[in-house]
Structure formats: structure tokens, C-alpha cells
Amino acid sequence: MAQFFAYIPHKNGVADDSALELIVAAKKIDPSASVTAIVTGSGGDLDKVADEVAASYPEVWKISNDALSYPNAEVVRKALINSLPADAVLLLPHDTFGMDLGPGLSIKLDSAYVADVVDFEGVEGSDIKIIRQEFSGQVSTHVKCDMSSGAVITVRPGVFQPDESKSAGGSVVDKDAGDVSAKRKYLEVVAAEVGDVDITKSEVLVSVGRGIEDQDNLEMVFELAEAMGADVSCSRPIVDAKWLEKSRQVGTSGLTVKPKVYLALGISGSFQHMGGVKGNPFIVAINKNPKAPVFQLADVGVEEDILEFIPELTEAINEAK
Amino acid sequence: MEILVCVKRVPDTSENEIEVGSDGTDIERDDLVYSVNEWDNYAVEEAIQIKDRVGGSVTVVTVGDDESEEVLRREMAMGADNGILLEDDAFEGSDGKGMAAILKGAVEKGNYDLILTGAQADDGAAQVGGMLAAMLDLPYAALVNHIEIQDDKKLKIGREIEGGNQEMNEIELPCVLSIQTGINEPRYVGIRGIRKVASVEIPTYGASDLGVDTGAVGEGAAKVKRLDYFVPEMGDGAEMLEGSTEEKVAKLIELLKAKGGMK
Lengths: 321, 263
Description:
Number of strands of chain B: 13
CATH superfamily of chain B: HUPs
Oligomer: heterodimer
CATH topology of the largest domain in chain A: Rossmann fold
Order of helices and strands of chain A: EEEHEHEHEHEEEEEEEEHEHEHEHEH
Largest sheet of chain A: 7 strands, parallel
Shape of chain A: elongated
Helix content of chain B: 25-40%
Strand content of chain B: 25-35%
Distance between the termini of chain B: 56 Å
Order of helices and strands of chain B: EEEHEHEHEHEEEEHEHHEEH
Radius of gyration of chain A: 22 Å
Strand order of the largest sheet of chain B: 9-8-7-10-6-1-4-5-11
Distance between the termini of chain A: 67 Å
CATH class of chain B: Alpha Beta
CATH class of the largest domain in chain A: Alpha Beta
Mean pLDDT of chain B: 94
Low-confidence stretches of chain A: none
Strand content of chain A: 25-35%
Structural class of chain B: alpha/beta
Largest interface: A-B, 95 and 82 residues
Largest sheet of chain B: 9 strands, mixed
Radius of gyration of chain B: 22 Å
Low-confidence stretches of chain B: none
CATH architecture of the largest domain in chain A: 3-Layer(aba) Sandwich
Helix content of chain A: 25-40%
Number of helices of chain B: 8
Number of strands of chain A: 18
């Protein structure tokens, strides 16, 4: 049987939330799997994370090297190639780091690669049965992955219920990073710009997506927000089009918001967007596509074209005042 | 700078609802509107802007069939100088690794300083760029949203990371970068622009032209195989408001008031 590993990202001496999810994911592949966690980095932060992770995994490989103090995927990849066995099945979160590391790592390990997994259905022979989504969650697929020469699998954050028991009492084993020279050098992280409205503090958000179709139509969104006493936020395509500033973007690549009420207008509801909506708000989705994934996540849905519905809603709110 | 951009023809999700076909082996492809993968447009635009700054050429390449030629011509209408179509029966059913192996053949036929891909596609796994780089032993960065030319040996790049932050790196040339949306504003292409490049010859290369081992690509070599498409069993989902638009508006206002959504 293959050896299972989970790569655990961390920041400021604290393990990523995925640490408690990846072990659950690995057990969903093989309930009898003994999963080894791998942490890379340097100094006291790494020691702290290794101890934290050992509470949830029977064994933790700690790979310490100054070159690993920031998780540059090209450097981490070398450290993993130098330490992983050939038939390793390695899980890592499907985030901006996992997307940077996973594909190239699978080539160097000569193993299979499957990205953004939302569920596992066990093993058949040497095949892992996997569920993925395509087209922003509009359809799902069963995928089989031959793990006979190992596999690198990125797992969607937040889909596996974390195992909070922290009862593994695992041991920490030091591993040598080996040669980690790379042709890509990390320089710095540039923090997100702060905008004129801090949507992370807003209690009511009117959030607009691709369904608004045209920059000129944004005016009606601001009018609705004004009528409701809400702030305007948006999904990624609106920022990509430069119609609104990045500081209004909700999602994993934008900001995490915790409103009481979240009104999603013409937003399809990708996990990257909805991943930024926390605190269990009352979610209303208005979308003309009845199959939009947002309707699965919302409390209340309205199947309407927002371009027609928004002005009517605004007018009715203003009249009721 | 000689730049190669890998592009892909995909169903356009802004124009289509994607539905599972009747036998579950594929999505319903009749009447689907196809276009260039959205991310790839940003990659091509970035390549053209770099060429405009420092000179060189932009080549777009795709793996596909005759129908994929239209996406190459569209990107050439944007300003790419050359198009290359990679087509062979042996390529069918390739997984991400197979696709990367095919593209590697195309890269090695040229002499490129910079290879760009879109960061992901709606029907993909955001994998081919990183695999291609590893196969070529070139440095790689994913989700790039900023490129500065330092000199002819290296670039300064920004990567999108969580929370709207940006990770800055220095990367040696030649390299492979996957481009995130928002890095630029892709130019509009009109019918006239496409007509202009309608008669430009697009060479087609098969496995033997590329020196690609047919045993390493296609369905036979794929370690990862899609078995079917299905619509997942969903929970109850949202409570859908019914009635006329006016009635829906009235119900929604009641709900918003009750939940504190109105100040």
C-alpha cells in the first residue's frame, strides 16, 4: 500500500486550517492509512508548527532550512523531491501555494496529479476514486487516478470536516532538505491596498458579479445599497474588468467578510468567491440562471435578471420608507 | 523576447449553461458556444504588451483539431505573430501530463525565452503550465499578475496569493509563467481583425513532427481519467421566492427587514 503524506502550510508559527482537513481526506481514501505530515520552514516558528501538527498526525517530518523560511514553491518542491519515497501519495491544499507547487512536483516524482478534489470514494486496485467539479461547480465528475507510482493531489479547502480531536500524540522527525537551489527567488509580500470602504466591517453587503454585464449598470447597485444602508462589494470578474477596486472584492483571492446579510447579485457562487463569506450570514441570491451554484449556498433565492430586478427592488424600498 | 503562449478552446460559461449529456459520459455539447479560455486572453495580451516594450515575437499554440484554429486566429488578430496547431489522433484522451508532453515538443521546436499559459480553465485543473516547466527543467510561477522585465536574464514577477496580497519574486529566463486574470485589460478583437489574419498560414504538427513519443500521450498513457459527468445530489438549497416580480420584491423586503438587512 502506498504511503500517505500531507503537506501542511503555515504562517507566523500557526498551521493552516487545512492541516485538520487533509488527514480526514486521506482517511477517506484509505481508512487504515497512516498519514505522515510534512512541514517545511526554519527556526522557532517551524518547531511550533511541527509540535502543533503532531497532535493530529502520528508522524511529522520537519524539514528545516533557511531557504525554506518563506514557502517558495520551487524551493519546497526540491526539498520534497529529496525526501519523499517514489510511491508517495501526497495531499496538499488547493490554494495559491498548492497550485504553484503541485503540478511540477508530480512530474518530478513521476506520479499522477489530480487538482481541486472535493471528495474521495475509496480505492479500487491501484486507482483512487475521486470527485471533482468542472465549470465552476455546474457539473461534477468521477475521476480515477492510478497511484501505482504515487500521486500528488490538491484538496479543496473547507470541504472536509476538520478532525479537531488532536489526540494523535505523534512524533516529530527531522529530515534533511538536501540541495534546494532554485531559479526563482522570493522577494517580498506586498499587502493588499486599503480602499475607501472597509467591507470586512460591513454588516450588510450588496455584492455584484458578472451578471451586471456593463460598468454603467453599477450605478443601480450603488443606488440599491444606498437605499438599504449597505456597502457594495463584488466578485472577481468585476475587479478584473477594473470596474471596482480590489478592496471591494470578496473571496479567497480578495477579502473575507462577515456581514449579517449578504445579497449576491448576478454572482454564480464559485467556491473561491463564497469562501470569502464567513460568519454564517443570511444570504440572498438573485440570478437569472436557476442552476447557478449560489442557489445551493443561499438561504433565499430569486430567479430574476438582476438588471430588471434591482431597480424595482430599490424603488420599492425607497417607497416603503 | 521570443514568447510562446499556450491557449485552449473551451465552452464559454458566460454564454452557456453547462449540462450533463444523456449518457453521462460528456457534457451536452450540441449548441455550445466555444471561445478562448478567459485566462489565456490575459496571457496573450501580456505577451503582446511585452513584445511592444522590448521587441521580439509572440507565438500562440494549441492542442486540438481544425476547430481550434479559430482560437489561434482570434489571438493572432489580437497581435500574436504566429500560430501553431498541434493535432494528432494519438493526442486524444491525454491527461494534463500528456498535454504538457505534447506542448514540450512544440517548445523545443522553437527558441523561446518566455512561455505563458492561462492560470486555469473552467474545464481544467490549472496544471499544464507547472507540468510543462518541470518537464523542461525551467523555473515556474503560478497565478502571475505582474511582470517586469529586469534584463535579458531575469524578470520580476508578482503572484496572486490569498487575501488580495501579492508575492513578489525574481525568476530567471527562460521560464514558464501561468497568468492570472486581471493582470491587464485584453484588447477587443473585432470581425475585421479576424478577417485580416484569416489567410495567414497556421502550421499543423503531429506527434512525429514534434518528436513526441505516442506512448507517453493520449488515453493509453493517462494516469488520470475522467469516468463520467454527473449533477451532484444537492441539499434543499435556497428557498426560492415565487410569484410575480412585484410579489418577489415585497417578500424579499420583508425578509431583509427581518434579518437586519435594511437600516
